[in-house]
Predict the 3D structure of the following.
Amino acid sequence: MTAESGGWQEPAAAPPALDHEAVRAAYRRWAWVYDAVFGSVWTPARRRAVAAVNGLPGERVLEVGVGTGLALPWYRTEKRIVGIDLSAEMLARARERARSLPNVEALYELDAEQTGLPDGHFDIAVAMFVASVVPHPRRLVAEMRRLVRPGGHLLFVNHFRAGRGPRWWAERALAPAARRLGWRPDFALDALLTAEEQQEAEIEALPPARMFTLLRLAN
């Protein structure tokens, strides 16, 4: 049986090697065109994630991988936002966007897998299109859990690889370019969440064409 036939799905593999320097280099290239290239395609998924954050209790929100700050204007004013990103170039654009947003408290250049921020400081942590970028996705989850208080919430929006069909073949074809792209085109859900976490998560397919997924986890 093949993946194309629908009767078999390839088991999750270890994520292709990405490191911080590869990510920084990629987003140094992307920063100046990021909004134009990805803004409109990813807007519905970003808006859904922010709407989910806005509907949750708690004011202190950490946006992991804030990028150019595309989502910052959509948070309710009572939410107090801290954003982090590994790319100085992306953050420079986010800081410009945040100048008129008084509820954005800080934007830091930090490693999402090891931030150095205090334990339990946030009510909510949200990572949009970040899980397939970091070198060690499960370290990202562990760090977000550390930063969010017990009873708080973790949210992820990401593309996860298809199990079959044309998209599966396209993802496999692009996989060797992961370092230059700065993300893994064939990223598997198993690389992010354990089987137990997948059972506990609320999972919602998002537009366009159910290409992206919103995951919600209680901490």
